[in-house]
Amino acid sequence: MLWTSQKILDGKNLDYFLHVGNNSNTKLKFVLVGFLDWNQIPLNSNSQKVFYGELKPKHRGIIKGEIEYNKINDRSNFTVIFLPNAFSILNNSYGKEYANEASFRLGIYKSKEENS
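^ thats the sequence. predicted structure below, dont judge the formating
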């Protein structure tokens, strides 16, 4: 398995942008949850550990976040899970419309040098 990875320099926080989209013709309510080394963390500055959102049909959104340097180990795993229709009642068919459609995983490593 090939991971995306990101080097962060000594003392620098990790800034990131999550891009979410709705390709359907109906509005989409969704939930995002983030994990750093499998511990749940807030995804934006309001300190909520669950991000609730809604997208209009055929729209996209961007969520800016930051992970503080002192919370990152020498090598860390950052994972974000996107849950569409998280509060919808499932029907008996458990159709694709209720599946976890996307997640993102990033390996993070600290470096004292810019070119290492």
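The two ends are 22 Å apart (CA to CA).
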